[in-house]
Amino acid sequence: MANKFKSDFSILICSPQADSEVPNEPNVYKLKGIDNLTEIDIALWKFFRTFNTSKPGAKRACIDLLSDTLLQHNAIITRKWLSNLLSNLKQRGFTTLGIINPQMHHQEELHAILSLFDGELVLSERDNANKQEKTLRVRRLSNQKYLEDEVTLIKEKISSQAQLSL
Fold this sequence. Notes:
By secondary structure, this protein is of the alpha/beta class. It has 5 helices and 7 strands.
């Protein structure tokens, strides 16, 4: 996606293999890992300096390192870092999605992080007639109307809807 949508998509990769496995592109930022949250902040500031905030359209950020950060840095440090990051993203008009595996953390730690977000969506799987079924449920969503019932996700319908929106 970084190669296909160079002007509309940027990615920050935090992985020891990033240098060897990910091609160098102007919209790809690489770090060795999540050991140093200050390095992540610096990389994000570099991104913000190059990002055109006046460009029309939705701005979305997806943070997919919350479970690893919480495991490595504990709830207090992760919450402080994430609170600052979310504030900076919100100031720049981003809608932010955080991904976390709830089975990896104690409930207190999990809720310390989840409470920073304006909403909570739960994606789960279950067996239904010997078939794996994915469902989506909105647990909470501030200042928005939403369907309170669980929704079954059907791959074919999602793929066709995604193609229509592109």
